[in-house]
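Follow-up to my post from last week.
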Amino acid sequence: MGRYVLRRLLQLIPVFIGTTFLIYWLVWSLPGDAFAGKCGDRPCPDAYVQAMMDKFNLGDPLIVQYGKYMLNVLQGNFGETFRGLDVGELIGEAYPNTIRLALVALAIEAVIGLAAGVLTGLRGRGFLDNLVLVSTLFLISLPVFVTGFVLQITLGFELKWIKTTVSASPAPWEHLIVPGFVLGSLSMAYVTRLTRTSIAENKRADYVRTATAKGLRQRRVVGVHLLRNSAIPVVTFLGTDLGALMGGAIVTEGIFDIKGIGSLVYDGIIGKEGVTVTGVVTLLVMVYLLSNLLVDLLYAVLDPRIRYD
Amino acid sequence: MTTTRSEVDFEETARVPGAPLLEVDDLFVEFRTRDGVAKVLNGVSYRVEPGETLAVLGESGSGKSVTAQTIMGILDMPPGVITGGEIRFHGENLLKASSRRRREVRGSGIAMIFQDALSALNPVFTVGFQIEEQLRLRKGMSRKDARKRAIELLDQVKIPNSKGRVRQYPHEFSGGMRQRAMIAMSLALDPEMLIADEPTTALDVTVQAQIMDLLKDIQVERNMGLILITHDLGVVAEVADRIAVMYAGRIVEQSHARDLYRKPGHPYTQGLLDSLPRLDLKGTELRTIKGLPPSLLNIPQGCPFNPRCPRVQDICKTEVPPQHRLAPGRLSACHFAEELISGD
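User reply:
Got it. Predicted complex:
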């Protein structure tokens, strides 16, 4: 196991370099003048542009720029925006909101998805099964911005059950329930279907019959023997999804005005703040790669037949 | 509340003194499928006494496993429907018993082992966990005691290095060891009756013999009733006291093992024995039973074996043969049973 983790961590290095370089290159080769509109209505003075070019090494060849940038990042310095704000601090403020939103979304996905999946998987064909199948299909086919705006307008503006925007930072948990539902709704539908199939497939397995033949209670047969096996693909999915959720949700955060990583990236792109965008995406790449590694390790914990050495 | 419950009340329930250990009485089971009603069991009766081995013999689809699953109460319902008959354990009709009572009988009254131990054991739990689980939940044992008992059980089924093995997962066991672990698991609650559903079919021949010897030893030691479901006449000859031959959901012949081998009382049994390869007939063509078992959706009129029977007469096509009592403990469902055993 230890050697496997080490190998995987070593593999992260080339992936990390490759992705971050690509991002750096893409961000700094965006068309348009990065300094347009930075100095009010007039064009920026040459002296300012020159100072900025020096500060951000924009005169160097791209590969050298990237090298200098990465050296700083590796020392924990994400650099400054053109306006002089510390990107590390910006991320530090935004990330807790994204993590909270991600956790709420994951919890909703896991609880509702698993419950609906187990219930329909056990019951088999019938009204409930059809209801869940149709409603998950509906959720899967709805874009997030539709679910988001519809819930914001009905629950927020008309019924006034929720606050329409969150704004506050750090965002209070209870304000994140509806945004979390919006963000997690698609994956929730997947979790439901994945669980349903997995349960339906395993419920006639020989080991389930054995467990019944041992005289165990139905609750234990389902809750321990059946669920433990059926959960393997579901937990793997949830783990990967957590990695994706940690990457921020530009649309959901935008609709509910959550000051998270998604909004930060969006503002960065709009304002041509290359340092912010590169910094955030670099961090997200790390988070995603590590969470994928964790999922693979979790897989071995859940299924003892999988061994990595 | 769910974790411990003493099994005291189990001992006090409706047992009839002097009743046989297990009696299956005129059992009918149907599978209601989209294609129609499959008559899987059509009046199956047999009984097993303590210390006795009953071999249930038959082709695939003859209903031998379904009978066992109905006894255990693990038949898939639907599509299965029990349409008639009784299963009496110490005289108590299990088919009328509450689901709680049935659960109590499972494992501690009647236990079962399955053909493919790899799929019958849960892949994600250790062998020890799967044995201990019953001891903890059904007998209220502590984790430590249950572990000790699990190791003892693994020793009893002659698994070497039981202390290390108890921590391993089923896929880390070889085929034979896995079946031994399965047997250990079935013995955990000291059942009075064990049903072995083709326990050696998935194993290679040398291991088969070891497992059969083990089952026999354990049965004698514990004076358990044993139902051995198999399609292997070779396995049966060595261990069975009595044999029930099943065909199309009926028992066509029931007899002491020796008598059946000496003089089969049903043309189907005769056919099965004739189709065994024999050294003294080496070089000659192997005899088989012509045709296929009938579809259970559409069992032939009269004797279900009539389309394949070499001795078929007109009566066989119209009338279902009754069980003829040929000798004490010997039954045959053939119109010509007497002729079969009296002829040469």
